[in-house]
Specification:
The protein has about 140 residues and is mainly α. About 20% of the residues lie in helices and about 0% in strands.
Length: about 140
């Protein structure tokens, strides 16, 4: 009864080595166009578009009209809230967060931002004048 198991275990190393040799001979190409250990030259980064861009559909999260390159958003700090929290937005002349950001999962109102809405860049991204990464036929809503 133990013999078939031992024979099966003995086959594993040759099969693994054979698979490795096959993968290396297949000539796998990098998606970046360079070898894994070579630095890839990044194209010029798209510049942030200042001012507000129009939303493409109803309920689209607003785009961020300023750079957030050095913003810290982690478990301890959310720099977005230093301007956009309801307690500071007026004095900073910044848009206030939607009331939905102050509701917990059961719909109860909170005095601070809900944990489910704390990481702003889950939904909000900086505006950029960039070409689409893939072709698409999306049409913005008519506003109805």
């Amino acid at each position: 009864m133990k013999k078939p198991i031992l024979v099966g275990l003995a086959l594993i190393p040759p099969l693994l080595l054979g698979g490795l040799a096959l993968a290396q001979s297949a000539g796998v190409n990098s998606l970046r166009g360079v070898e894994v250990d070579e630095p890839a030259i990044v194209d010029q980064v798209h510049r942030t578009v200042e001012g507000r861009m129009q939303r493409n559909y109803r309920q689209q999260p607003p785009l961020i009209p300023h750079s957030i390159e050095q913003y810290q958003i982690d478990l301890r700090t959310n720099q977005c809230l230093s301007c956009h929290d309801w307690t500071k937005a007026g004095e900073r002349n910044a848009p206030t967060l939607s009331m939905t950001h102050y509701l917990d999962r059961e719909g109860r109102e909170l005095d601070q931002i809900a944990g489910t809405r704390y990481f702003c860049n889950q939904c909000h991204v900086p505006q950029a004048d960039a070409l689409p990464l893939v072709d698409n036929t999306f049409e913005p809503s008519s506003g109805n």
